[in-house]
Backbone:
């Protein structure tokens, strides 16, 4: 049967292609009413997690709480996996396996939000120093969304089929937690995921909004130290010394030409010298100067280029300064702090975006800017299993605050700020709705 271009069937088919599949009103109402019932308990959980943050690799009470909540939701829970990691599995018939990840760690920041549930926690960090602690990156939001999603999907068991693996991951802020869990055998000891999804709250988007980006989404991050060596001496006798302070200055300036002169303008890259230290007194030329760099990129090619150029420039400037071979600068890439870029699988991302838009409405789903920050969620897609991953952002600010910030030009407190204060209820509810929408689409009842 030929279809006339203006026939209603054709137009409906076209509309279905152009717009996301809408959630059925019945299911939508069911999820909404379950959220209404569950929210008071989630609010209490969020505020408790927020008031009692723990640093990376020290998430003892936090992980025990997350584990208890997931167990109570009906999941089979394993604790202390890859450190303080939590793995919760719900087998619900035949079908694919979906992994949903939340991180759990907080930061050494003194909270200045003035909220009634603000953290006043102090702890000894891994170096034994007393530091304040705050959930300044919103990982408490992520954990609450994870628990709310677990309860929701356990309650909707008759609406999906497959296996859910929910994880509470330690030490995201040190970018080692995902690797620790994967090395401990996450994909071998538990059902291997066919997809992995995760989210991060983001104060630059309004509550109720979710942002997606296909392809590279968060960056490679490398920490690099340069030990600039010289021959110390009297500050008034420079002719008898080889001055590493001047050499360090030359190196810093020459490093600025890597991104501006060597990298394709369409390839984002950053080389920042964040620390410089050397010398003890004005009239002494020191023996060395230490530089600390952060280096960001998306593709592996650009990453390799940046690191090779840093080595070449450090050495080249030392040669130009007349340093002897044995005093060439020592460039060290700190492997334990390296994070790889998150690559959002385009097919999976489109699918999750469409499912989420069907629930939240297309107006609440945006294309998010790529982030020149690191996130070890990337690791879940970088094993030999090549699991497709999708990481998206969750709006966390009141729309009027965003409007005010735009009109005044005063930026909102960012992630890691002592004043970062997401609006809990709409952020958490939207996160749970998005994760539920994604799961119902990826693990359909056949
Ligand atoms: Zn963070
Ligand atoms: Zn974070």
Residues:
């Amino acid at each position: 049967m030929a279809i006339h271009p203006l026939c209603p069937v054709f137009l409906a088919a076209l509309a279905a292609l152009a717009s996301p599949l809408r959630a059925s009103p019945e299911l939508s109402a069911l999820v909404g009413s379950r959220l209404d019932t569950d929210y008071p308990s989630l609010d209490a959980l969020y505020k408790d997690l927020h008031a009692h943050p723990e640093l990376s690799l020290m998430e003892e009470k936090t992980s025990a709480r997350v584990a208890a909540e997931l167990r109570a939701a009906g999941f089979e829970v394993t604790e202390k996996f890859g450190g303080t990691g939590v793995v919760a599995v719900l087998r619900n018939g035949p079908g694919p396996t979906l992994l949903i990840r939340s991180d759990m760690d907080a930061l050494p920041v003194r909270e200045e939000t003035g909220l009634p549930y603000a953290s006043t926690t102090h702890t000894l960090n891994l170096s034994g120093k007393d530091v304040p602690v705050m959930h300044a990156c919103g990982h408490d939001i992520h954990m609450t969304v994870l628990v709310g999603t677990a309860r929701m999907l356990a309650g909707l068991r008759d609406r999906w089929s497959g296996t859910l693996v929910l994880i509470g991951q330690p030490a995201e802020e040190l970018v080692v937690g995902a690797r620790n869990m994967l090395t401990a055998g996450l994909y071998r000891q538990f059902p291997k995921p066919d997809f992995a999804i995760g989210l991060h709250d983001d104060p630059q988007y309004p509550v109720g909004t979710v942002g997606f980006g296909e392809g590279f989404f968060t960056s490679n991050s490398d920490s690099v130290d340069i030990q600039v060596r010289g021959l110390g001496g009297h500050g008034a006798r420079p002719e008898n010394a080889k001055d590493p302070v001047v050499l360090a200055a030359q190196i810093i300036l020459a490093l600025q030409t890597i991104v501006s002169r060597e990298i394709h303008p369409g390839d984002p890259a950053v080389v920042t010298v964040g620390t410089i230290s050397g010398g003890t007194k004005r009239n002494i030329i020191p023996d060395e100067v230490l530089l600390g760099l952060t280096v960001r990129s998306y593709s592996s090619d650009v990453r390799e280029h940046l690191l090779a150029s840093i080595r070449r420039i450090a050495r080249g400037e030392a040669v130009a300064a007349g340093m002897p071979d044995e005093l060439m600068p020592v460039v060290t890439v700190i492997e334990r702090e390296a994070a790889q870029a998150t690559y959002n699988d385009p097919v999976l991302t489109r699918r999750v975006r469409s499912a989420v838009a069907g629930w939240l409405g297309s107006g609440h789903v945006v294309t998010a800017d790529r982030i020149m920050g690191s996130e070890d969620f990337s690791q879940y897609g970088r094993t030999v299993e090549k699991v497709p991953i999708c990481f998206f952002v969750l709006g966390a600010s009141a729309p009027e605050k965003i409007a005010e910030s735009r009109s005044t030009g005063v930026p909102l407190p960012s992630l890691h700020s002592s004043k970062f204060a997401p609006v809990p209820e709409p952020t958490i509810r939207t996160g749970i709705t998005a994760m539920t929408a994604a799961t119902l689409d990826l693990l359909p009842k056949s």
In short: The two ends are 29 Å apart (CA to CA). DSSP finds eleven helices and 18 strands in the chain. Residues 1-19 have pLDDT under 50 and may be disordered. The longest helix spans residues 25-51.
